[in-house]
Amino acid sequence: MKIIVIGFFLSVMASVSHSAELLQIPANPDKGFNYPYLIKLPEVVSNQDKIFLIVETNNTGKVSDDYDVHLEAAKNAIVGNAVGPWLSKKLSYPILMPVFPRPESAWQVYTHALDRDSMLVKSVPFERLDLQLKAMIENAYDILRERSLKLQDGVILAGFSASGTFANRFSLLHPEIIEIVVAGGLNGTLMLPTASLESHSLKYPLGINDFNQIAGRNFNLDEWLTIKQFLFMGENDTNDAVAYDDAYSEEERLVIYKTTGKSIHPERWSNSQEAYKKYGANVTFRTFKGVGHGTNGTVHSEFLAFVQGNI
């Protein structure tokens, strides 16, 4: 796998062959993104009429003020077997992965999960990572279409653990650019398409009570309902980000416990599912027996079949 660092001169990029390429696109603040992103091109481009761009955000798994730590982790992840990269290999679709930081000096800002702190920061390079990712996607479409890839307009958004939580939240923020969501390892907790539950206000990222303040526009329920979603957990998954201060504030934690529940299984995960069903979400929920905070062949085969059946 060769890594090619490219700028924004499309005539140069168009001369590079398709085989086994990992492209590193530099940061371009003028185009709306302050960090580089990666594109992995499939070794064999799909001959299907419909080709989708897969997107999975990076998840280093730890904080660090050394940006190279996040860059190297993303490079390893995009060629690995996480949800998005694995789908990319099986479907012969290109995949995009941003290289967002997760700074130790601002440890409470859980950028890789798109938490409330990360959506509220101002005048820093990692302000509004959701908009930066949207700009990266738009830029990637220009690059890939210059290479004669006939991409569909909606992306396949994938993720697991923190990147799964990012995918879930991003799907409510920007449903208009998403065709399918595949996300797992979600702590039994989803962002809900409602402003309140059990008389408790649900502010971002628990719900949409202050959505306009956070996103700068109203929540588009109709658009969100068109997204085809596959959301999953392992029945033995005890990885609970809700209990940690970098992922949730004490106020958010108490609201979660009072509304959807304190235990991941079955309480919180079941109540989250019921809330999605109540509002008519186009979602398939799966709880995989014998699986913890991870995936296996059965999990992969099911979400692959789901994607194939919805494109």
Question: Describe it for me?
Answer:
The protein is of the alpha/beta class. The protein has a single domain, classed as 3-Layer(aba) Sandwich (Rossmann fold), CATH 3.40.50.1820. Helix content is 35%, strand content 16%. It contains eleven helices and eleven strands. The protein has helices spanning 10-13, 67-78, 83-91, 116-120, 129-146, 162-173, 211-215, 221-225, 250-259, 264-278, 297-309, and strands at residues 2-5, 21-25, 37-41, 54-56, 95-98, 155-160, 178-184, 196-197, 200-201, 228-234, 283-288.
Could you provide a short overview of the structure?
With 311 residues, the protein is α/β, with parallel strands linked by helices.
- Annotated CATH topology: Rossmann fold
Number of helices: 11
What's the CATH class, please? Alpha Beta
Residue ranges: pLDDT <50 for 5 or more in a row? 8-19
| Approximate shape | globular
End-to-end gap: 28 Å
- How many strand units? 11
CATH architecture: 3-Layer(aba) Sandwich
- Strand residues, percent: 15-25%
Radius of gyration: 19 Å
Average pLDDT, all residues: 92
User: CATH homologous superfamily - what is it?
Assistant: Alpha/Beta hydrolase fold, catalytic domain
Order of SSEs, N→C? EHEEEHHEHHEHEEEHHEHHEH
Structural class determined from secondary elements: alpha/beta
Protein name: Alpha/beta hydrolase family protein
Organism: Microbulbifer epialgicus
Keywords: Signal
InterPro entries: AB_hydrolase_fold
